[in-house]
Amino acid sequence: MLHLKTNIKKMKKIVSIVLAAFFLLAVKTNVNAQTKIGYVSLSEFMPSMPEFKKADTAMTDFRNALAQQYEDEKKELNEQDSILNSKDTLKFTKAQLELKRKTFGELYVKVQQFQQQASEQMQQKQQELLAPVQKKALDVIQTVAKENGYAFVLQKEALYAYPNADDLLPLVKKKLGLK
Q: DSSP class of residue 47?
């Protein structure tokens, strides 16, 4: 009976060791399988997306509209400046001249503020237009990574050095139906 208990204990130890070894092997295999690394260049494939081209066209239209508005305001400012620097100022009363100078100063400030606001509006519009394009691009990258067993996908432009990895650009373009 004592001999049987000793054998059972030995068998339990052997089974435990075999199970532990099997578990460690399975974990190691699973870790190795999940460390597949890829990279992709967003700047290389996003411009070829139709959504990006639409966003770029809309951005150009917005930029042109702001530029036209700026030119109109600048033209008005230049006209006021010309009036104030011409000989015609002699025909204005002191009060009229003071009012024209005040108007010119206000226009000048308005043009300066417009430049700053236009820059901010451009950034907001760009973010608004590109956010859905970037989301779609990232969703496709995640789908491609998942379908092809990649645990990590790095942005190529953000790295100076990286381990051996696969360029997912062809797979991503294929998924999007791009050439």
A: G
Distance CA 16, CA 26 (A): 15
pLDDT on residue 59: 95
Query: Taking the alpha carbons of 78, 81, 87, 91 in that order, is the dihedral positive or negative?
Result: positive
What whole-number distance in Å separates Cα of residue 12 and Cα of residue 16? Answer: 6
Question: Which residue ranges make up each domain of the chain?
Answer: 1-34, 35-176
Instruction: Give residue-wise pLDDT tens across range 104-139.
Output: 899 999 999 998 999 999 999 999 999 999 999 999
Q: Rounded to two decimals, what is the model's pTM? A: 0.64
Q: How far apart are CA 40 and CA 148, in angstroms?
A: 14
Of the CA atoms within 13 Å of residue 136, those in its CB half-sphere come to 16
What is the distance between the alpha carbons of residues 142 and 159, in angstroms, rounded to a whole number?
A: 19
| CATH architecture designation of domain 35-176 | 2-Layer Sandwich (3.30)
Question: Closest by alpha carbon to 168, among 140, 134, 130?
Answer: 140
DSSP character string of 58-94 = HHHHHHHHHHHHHHHHHHHHHHHHHHHTSGGGGGS-H
